[in-house]
Prior knowledge:
Elements: H1 4-11, E1 21-28, H2 34-45, E2 54-55, E3 62-63, H3 69-74, E4 81-87, E5 90-96, H4 104-111, E6 116-122, H5 129-140, E7 145-150, H6 159-170, E8 173-176, E9 178-181, E10 189-192, E11 197-201, E12 208-213, H7 228-244, H8 250-254, E13 258-263, H9 272-282, E14 289-291, E15 294-296, E16 304-312, E17 321-329, E18 331-333, E19 337-340, E20 345-348, E21 353-356, E22 359-362, E23 365-367, E24 371-375, E25 385-387, E26 398-400, E27 404-410, H10 416-429, E28 433-437, E29 444-447, H11 450-464, E30 468-472, E31 477-482, H12 485-494, E32 499-501, E33 507-511, H13 514-523, E34 528-530, E35 532-534
Parallel strand pairs: 1-5, 1-6, 6-7, 7-13, 8-13
Antiparallel strand pairs: 2-3, 4-5, 9-10, 10-11, 11-12, 14-15, 16-17, 16-25, 17-24, 18-23, 19-20, 19-25, 21-22, 26-35, 27-29, 27-30, 28-29, 28-32, 31-33, 31-34, 32-33
Helix pairs in contact: 1-9
Amino acid sequence: MLDPSASLAAASSGGPDYTRRRTFAIISHPDAGKTTLTEKLLLASGAIRQAGQVKARGERRRTRSDWMEIEQQRGISVTSSVMTFERDGIVFNLLDTPGHSDFSEDTYRTLSAVDAAVMVIDAAKGIESQTRKLFEVCRLRDIPIFTFINKVDREGLDPIGLMDDISATLALDLTPFTWPIGMGVDARGLIDVPGKRALLVEERGGPLTRVVPFEHPEDLIGLEGVEERILNESVEGLSLALGILPPFDLESFREGHLSPVFFGSAIKEMGVPELLAGLGGFGPSPLARSANGRTVEPQEDNVSGFVFKVQANMDPNHRDRVAFVRLCSGTFKRGMKLFNAREKRQMAIANPIFFFAQERETVDEAVAGDIIGIPNHGLLRVGDTLSEGETIRFEGIPDFAPEILRRVMLGDHMKTKQLQKALQDMAEEGVVQVFRPMADPLPIVGVVGTLQLDVLASRLEKEYGVPIRYETVSFVTARWVSGEHAEVERFTEGNRFSLALDRDNAPVYLARSQWVLDRAIEEWPKLKFLAVKERG
Length: 536
């Protein structure tokens, strides 16, 4: 089996700068340990000294990857955050995605910007619903996946059973890179399969400080300091797995057909350094991207990139608005001018930034694979393409038809303008979709899940000083209306009370029931009622 440490050394030596970039997301079901793993990867890289805290330059400020107040109150991730760090000559761009299904759109947009993903699975629960959904998104995009089976320090399912469940449920080939020596109260360490070494605790519950090399797993039988029963079960299980599972194949992994599996415990830092070595050694460098009917290669001279996220008020003191841009080609330099394909205008990028959660540092130079932030005042939005020279339009990032619709009610009508600005910002970020009914002055917001409504209300009050409440509406779903202009106009004339405009002034049909929607589709065959609309 290929040793990730050797591959890491090869990847970090020589070659263009972009080949040393690893841009990846972490995906999971809520409570599987995604945020803890994020922090421990930063700790293992030396980027932070204490788990749970990200220290600013000069240690003046401290923060978390979950930086919103509502995230810290509820212990969940509701927005994507970006963290850039370096280890062993490799630059990692880590995108921590929302785990809650109510924020799946933000996760989907984030996955458009990565080249690989780490799938975190709870050892006691196996594959869960949100994990399955996010995996399918990765499969649609052919994103290679590392699997981290977390919480082996707690009682969990049998390792062989876990791998069988994952493989069968996801139709994915697996191969073990680390293997647990006992689980729960029996946890004694890990077997590093490609490194041919056992990583053991000196005392129960302690760190893996004892290292025992081996040639074959069976050589560990009788190892002093580990109970015979625990060690025998571990070696037997690993030998069985290696016998029935396919060996690691780099090409199959890069194509998304095979996933290396790392058992561990994020909170105990077990298996995290091995996962990081795997990411550096086997994770793909920036991949080519489709645009304008051609393929944009990372080694091209001209700079190109796209906006996959917009975040307002990361620093409430400055009322800032930052566009997250994934660079796809070229070498970006501070102060250069890039062309915005949607706005059809040049932009001078004067103060680009790298992220460390909400901490930031000015960028002088960045290459394909890097994520940079561009502070702006509304010129950039999700789906926009920036380029140097050629006018490029990358494939758009979709909006999905919302499943929940609510009318926004304002307690203080003197704050109508503030509300309009706040909702515009939230729509640009992708927090919610905002619709302006043609026959009603009150806006309607559309969301995937109810937690988005809580986040919207919390942020409007905290960041804009605009308290709101919601009112139910008689509409159950929304569809974008598309077709020839004359036909759309004719449909509009007869359905004004069921139509709204989105942020692009595109018509949206608000249906009172599925039956009503089906009838409209039948009666207007020349029109399309779209559940998905491309951004950009």
